[in-house]
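# step 3/5: fold
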Amino acid sequence: DREGIYSPGTISVSMIAARIPRGEGQYLAYTTRTQTSPITGASAIQAGTDSGGTHQKIADGQYVYTFATKLPAGYDRTVTHTVGAYGSRNLSEFELGTQYSSSVYNFVPDGSPVKVVRDVVRTATCNKCHHSMGFHGGSRRTTEICVLCHTPQTWDPDTGNTVDMVTMIHKIHMGEDLPSVKAGKKYQIIGNRQSVHDYSTVAFPADARNCQVCHETAAGATQSANMFHAN
């Protein structure tokens, strides 16, 4: 009930489309935007949500979403594609705040089975410390959604730092122990509306050399053995 006609609270949904290129292990998004830094003047193409798409109601509680983003001619129909959706239901008028949910759908356009995935760290593992992940205002709450936008193609034009999931997450958790921070620099990422996020004082509660604190096999991630290190 997207419009909140038959149930309380309207629903806002954002959509992402991405693929894992042949021979690679991380996503590249089709849905992108251009971000220009007022500090450096540099511009970056960043992965993000679709803009300008349309919803068509086909039955109560059922909608078809049509992306405004068009796939490029000759796109690879043989690789894993993923559509991610994250939404929120505003129940503030009932003093119940805002409720969040998200989901991803993996498929191969030529109809063959999905064999390549990105499944390194599960949300449940992150929530052992974060309790309930809720970044970018609270709406992005799963690693499955995070990896669709935090891709190698995406960087911060204000600082020059990549926001690729692998490098960014390792550096955030290293925080005060990063060699660059110990040398007197700050590790910052400037986000939406020029908000400054400084991770230079983050203290990881475990020994950062123990990769399995996050890359834990018991959580069920099929690629938990994929381990990288920040510089």
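# step 4/5: annotate
The helical segments are 123-130, 143-149, 165-174, 179-182.
# step 5/5: archive (pending)
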